[in-house]
Specification:
By secondary structure, the chain is an alpha/beta fold. It contains 11 helices and 8 strands. It is globular, with a radius of gyration of 17 Å. Bound molecules: phosphoenolpyruvate.
Length: about 250
């Protein structure tokens, strides 16, 4: 089963709307017309309206960094799936380790968001990954398996083509430390086995599993060459066109 690479940029809390416009213009001028690799940028909520107009005439897709599971109501500061759809957002990052760490998001909370995203035709990029302590105690696979099972509980099989996972070892996020190619492949392969138990072999082999954690142009080709690595979720290196495009070009070579 061939899976198209997805390279997604998680801009986190960086870039004003006008800075976002400049960065997207640069990305578009290099890779905005190619279709070999799927490209997605995830700016902050405040930049989505402006960037939505910009990406319209290109192959670049838009993602959000989070959303609320409820359709509407008294949730000050929150944004719903429908609001994102209204801005032609395609993907939404859910369960990022920073949201789990700083905002107390559990697998159960993230599960509700994933189901709401799917209900609204948004493609969740579901983030999972272990802490350094969990890795050092040999618990990586147990932790990740549990995140997959709990986060994807009641996920409708008919929507499986809209599901993306991102394996992001927490100790590799923003630290400059990357999982080795082999470490990434071991966990990705195990995730696919769990997906196969949950949804069957055919579905499991069609789901994209991205790697995230200090991916950059220099290490992208090795990671993306692994059999079960289907793209990257990129933080720091997505903030300049040169490094983000460098990763896309590495994906084109694999
Ligand atoms: C991320 O936060 O999703 C991420 C992968 O960050 P970085 O690339 O900076 O490690």
């Amino acid at each position: 089963m061939s899976r198209k690479f997805l390279i997604a940029g998680n801009w986190k809390m960086n870039k004003t709307a006008s800075e976002a416009v400049d960065l997207i213009d640069e990305i578009k001028s290099s890779v905005g017309g190619q279709t070999a690799v799927q490209v997605c940028v995830c700016p902050s909520f405040t930049s989505l309206a402006k960037t939505s107009e910009l990406v319209e005439q290109s192959e670049v897709l838009l993602g959000a960094q989070d959303m609320n599971a409820s359709p509407s109501g008294a949730f000050t500061g929150e944004v719903s799936a429908e609001m994102l759809r209204d801005l032609y957002v395609s993907f939404v990052i859910l369960g990022h380790s920073e949201r789990r760490q700083y905002y107390g998001e559990t697998n159960q909370i993230v599960n509700q968001k994933i189901l709401a995203a799917i209900d609204n035709n948004l493609k969740p990029i579901y983030c999972i990954g272990e802490t350094l302590e969990e890795r050092e105690n040999g618990r990586t696979l147990d932790v990740v398996r549990n995140q997959v099972r709990e986060g994807l509980e009641n996920f409708p099989s008919k929507s499986i083509e809209n599901l993306v996972l991102a394996y992001e070892p927490i100790w590799a996020i923003g630290t400059g430390k990357t999982a080795t190619d082999e470490m990434a492949q071991e966990v990705h392969c195990d995730i696919r086995k769990v997906l196969s138990e949950m949804f069957g072999d055919a579905a499991s082999s069609s789901i994209r599993i991205l790697y995230g954690g200090s991916m950059k142009p220099e290490n992208a080709e090795g990671l993306l060459s692994q059999a079960d690595v289907d793209g990257g979720l990129i933080g720091g290196a997505s903030l300049t066109a040169r490094s983000f495009v460098g990763i896309i070009e590495a994906a084109q070579k694999v």
